[in-house]
Amino acid sequence: MKVTVVGAGSWGTTVASLVAKRHDTTVWAREPGLAQQINDMHVNPLYLAGFSLPERLVATADLKTATETAQLLIIAVPSHGFRDVLRRACPHVPPWIPVISLSKGLEQGTLLRMTEIIRELLPGHPAAALTGPNLAKEILSGKAAATVVATEDLTVATALQEVLHRGLLRVYVNHDVIGCEIGGALKNVVAIAAGMAEGLGVGDNTRAAVITRGLAEITQLGTAMGGESTTFAGLTGMGDLLATCMSPQSRNRHVGERLGRGHRLDDVLGAMCSVAEGVRTAGVAVELGDRHGLPLPICHTIQHVIDGKLSARDAYEGLRNIPAGHEADPW
């Protein structure tokens, strides 16, 4: 099979590297210099320094060349650039081929999930999401991991599962696309909160409470939007949440930790070469919560920190002072 991965960040390059071991795989890089480094030296020093890539993995900075012969298209572009890059690719995408999103975010303004954007721009193409506790560097180094390919058509999901499964990366299928995408997006917001706890030094008990209550918020919003509650207890809910909140490799946790230590958000983001999706997702989550009549206090609080209305320390004081009711309640 000819597979194209659009986006040469850490996760896009990792997925391309795994798939390239069994399939003809091309990765599209925005920067021509990076594409040349992948082709000539089999490295991606910008996002995966210290790792060697498969020699048979081909890179290009030409979107038409990357997509026109694809039999499977994988989009590994952050949510804020997802629509634009996919729109530019659309004229060259062969008809009917499956399209998989690797992005764990929500579109600002429209509040759409990434598979909804795929269906809008490429009607008739099976749209899927690949999501789960997938820290790129661990997987590229050969450590065992599990992920989920989510699409309503389980026949398509099973076919994609066969393409994506490789070595110690176990790929599960799930029909609950809404639940999987909401879990993948909102865990980034909770990870910022967990990182703030680490930066403030408030203790593991506090961090555990925030992660747990964060999972409750994710589940409440996800089910209100049509997701299934069991999804949020699985890999794309609790699993992804734990990995993102606890790992030092997590970009969103890193942002929260720096905020907790008093750094300015612009300075934190300016020093990063990768995107922390939770910074943009928090506001979208708040809008979705308002639409469904849900308070989502963690998402609201993180958005206030991002907007500069609250310091990290004041944010934690506010969360601590919320009255405690029944555990099944929002807070």
UniProtKB/TrEMBL annotation:
Residues annotated as domain Glycerol-3-phosphate dehydrogenase NAD-dependent N-terminal: 2-155
Positions of the catalytic residues: 187 (proton acceptor)
GO biological process: carbohydrate metabolic process; glycerol-3-phosphate biosynthetic process; glycerol-3-phosphate catabolic process; glycerophospholipid metabolic process; phospholipid biosynthetic process
EC number, as in UniProt: 1.1.1.94
Catalytic activity: sn-glycerol 3-phosphate + NADP(+) = dihydroxyacetone phosphate + NADPH + H(+); sn-glycerol 3-phosphate + NAD(+) = dihydroxyacetone phosphate + NADH + H(+)
Protein family per UniProt: Belongs to the NAD-dependent glycerol-3-phosphate dehydrogenase family.
Protein name, per record: Glycerol-3-phosphate dehydrogenase [NAD(P)+]
Species classification: Bacteria, Bacillati, Actinomycetota, Actinomycetes, Streptosporangiales
Gene encoding the protein: gpsA_2
